[in-house]
Specification:
The protein is α+β, with helices and mostly antiparallel strands and 131 residues long. It contains three helices and three strands. 1% of the residues are buried. The mean pLDDT is 77.
Length: 131
C-alpha cells in the first residue's frame, strides 16, 4: 500500500519544517515493513493543496492492477502445484470450486413395506374389528 505522508521535523531551536514522503507498507509474516521516499519540502498552503489534490496520490493504477493480477496468478499456480503434489503422493483429487449437486435417488422403504390393501367394502380404521 502506498500513500503520501507529511512529516514534521523540529530543529534544536524549535523551528519546524514539513516534508512530504511517499510511503510504502507491506507485510512480512506478522510484521509490517515500510519504506519512505522523500518527495520534497512542503511549503505553506500550496504544498498542502498539491499533496491532496489528486485522488490517485501519485499511484499508477495500471501498474497496481498488473501487480495484483500477477500475484493472483502466482497464488493460483502455487495452489495448483500443491494439488498436483497431493495427487501424486496420495492419489487425492479435489473437485471443482463450485460443485454441482449429485442427484441420488434413495429407495422408498416406506412404499415397499406398505400393508396389503383391504378388500373393497371392508371397514377402515383402528376400531374396525368384528362386532
Amino acid at each position: 500500500m502506498a500513500f503520501i505522508r507529511i512529516k514534521t521535523v523540529r530543529n534544536k531551536s524549535g523551528k519546524s519544517y514539513q516534508y512530504r514522503y511517499l510511503e510504502y507498507r507491506w507485510r512480512e509474516g506478522k510484521k509490517v515493513r515500510s519504506k519512505s521516499i522523500l518527495i520534497g519540502a512542503l511549503t505553506a498552503v500550496a504544498g498542502f493543496i498539491e499533496a491532496n489534490r489528486t485522488r490517485s496520490y501519485g499511484l499508477d493504477w495500471d501498474e497496481v492492477e498488473r501487480d495484483a493480477l500477477a500475484r493472483q496468478e502466482r497464488e493460483e499456480a502455487g495452489r495448483q502445484a500443491s494439488l498436483n503434489d497431493l495427487h501424486a503422493a496420495y492419489g487425492l483429487t479435489v473437485g471443482p470450486n463450485n460443485p454441482t449437486p449429485v442427484d441420488r435417488t434413495t429407495p422408498n422403504v416406506a412404499a415397499e413395506a406398505k400393508e396389503p390393501e383391504a378388500p373393497a367394502g371392508a371397514p377402515e380404521g383402528p376400531d374396525a374389528g368384528p362386532d
